[in-house]
């Protein structure tokens, strides 16, 4: 078949040459390749898909042309197949979703539930491409409700648990979780998933600067939404050491959020709601933290006194974290999984 040979040649020529991608797109190869995506012949669809994928890489204009030529619908159809084309279709949607004008088209195409399904049932590379595509789509706020409706939180946490915490996959997974944590359904799901909060705490300790920022943002969203529910759960997973480190070494945004979360963790809801203080301790891991000094930054003592108070607060928080360490290690041993080959 002449078209099959042509598609394979286009794929070969565009594999490494950015100039060739520009030239061939200008020559009009994109519309016929998109038509081939609808072919009943597996080889033709595969050749066209791989050629389209190469044309889209690193070229914003080509990404837009491909979507305007009608590529999204056949790509969604390919996501529903059981063949290797499913993985390539996910990679194509990941690449195409990087263009801002493509995000609403892909988001309304029916691709989102299929990408979420791939987080569970795809190959390692398929899961990576799916989370990257979902992240790209989530940067458009109107795509977040349909992403949430597809119930992505459990597979995202499972992927985050098994991947390298400082890698690009973790960055995108935690960013997606943080954006979804604005919704009550997502927050509840994080709290219900076994080891979900622990996984976010592990990112606080071992993640990149980006993933740590998104992890603390997610934990803060939980605690701000319902402190009585999430405060002790976060404390019990040993979050304090990572948060303290983040107040010094995190991005400016992460530092601010870590400070805010530490303040929320410092007093139990029962204590903070009592008029003027004085009342009882919180339950769980929070009791030891309730008695901490509250005058940090307060008036009257000068810089030296503030520094002493801050040191005292730090010492008390570190002591609390040490008291929790055994439970934290036991939880880690329970939920830890064998290392995955997802490393980026």
From TrEMBL:
Biased composition (Gly residues): 275-289
Record-given protein name: U-box domain-containing protein
Signal sequence, start to end: none
Record keywords: Membrane, Transmembrane, Transmembrane helix, Ubl conjugation pathway
Residue numbers spanned by region Disordered: 268-290
Transmembrane segments: 21-37
Protein's organism: Selaginella moellendorffii
GO annotations of cellular component type: cytoplasm; nucleus
Domain U-box: 5-268
Tagged with keyword Transmembrane: yes
Residue windows of the ARM repeats: 28-70, 70-111
PROSITE patterns cross-referenced by the UniProt entry: ARM_REPEAT
SMART domains: ARM (SM00185)
Gene3D superfamilies recorded: Leucine-rich Repeat Variant
């Amino acid at each position: 078949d002449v078209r099959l040979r042509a598609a394979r040649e286009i794929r070969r020529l565009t594999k490494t040459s950015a100039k060739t991608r520009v030239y061939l797109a200008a020559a009009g190869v994109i519309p016929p390749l998109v038509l081939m995506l609808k072919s009943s012949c597996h080889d033709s669809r595969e050749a066209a898909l791989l050629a389209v994928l190469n044309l889209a890489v690193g070229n914003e204009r080509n990404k837009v042309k491909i979507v305007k030529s009608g590529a999204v619908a056949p790509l969604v159809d390919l996501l529903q197949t059981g063949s290797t084309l499913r993985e390539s279709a996910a990679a194509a949607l990941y690449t195409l979703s990087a263009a801002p004008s493509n995000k609403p088209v892909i988001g309304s195409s029916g691709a989102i539930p299929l990408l979420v399904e791939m987080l569970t049932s795809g190959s390692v590379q398929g899961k990576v491409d799916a989370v990257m595509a979902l992240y790209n789509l989530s940067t458009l706020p109107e795509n977040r409700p349909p992403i949430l409706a597809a119930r992505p939180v459990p597979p995202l946490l499972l992927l985050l648990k098994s991947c390298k915490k400082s890698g690009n996959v973790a960055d995108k997974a935690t960013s997606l979780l943080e954006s979804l944590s604005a919704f009550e359904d997502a927050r509840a799901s994080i709290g219900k998933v076994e080891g979900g909060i622990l996984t976010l705490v592990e990112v606080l300790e071992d993640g990149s600067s980006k993933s740590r920022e998104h992890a603390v943002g997610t934990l803060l969203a939980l605690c701000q939404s319902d402190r009585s529910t999430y405060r002790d759960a976060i404390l019990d997973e040993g979050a304090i050491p990572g948060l303290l480190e983040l107040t010094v070494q995190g991005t400016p945004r992460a530092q601010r959020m870590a400070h805010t979360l530490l303040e929320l963790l410092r007093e139990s809801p029962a204590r903070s709601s009592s008029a003027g203080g004085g009342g009882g301790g919180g339950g769980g891991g929070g009791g030891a933290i309730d008695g901490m000094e509250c005058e940090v930054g307060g008036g009257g003592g000068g810089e030296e006194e503030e520094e002493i108070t801050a040191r005292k607060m730090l010492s008390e928080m570190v002591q609390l974290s040490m008291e929790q360490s055994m439970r934290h290690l036991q939880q880690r041993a329970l939920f830890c999984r064998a290392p995955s080959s997802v490393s980026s």
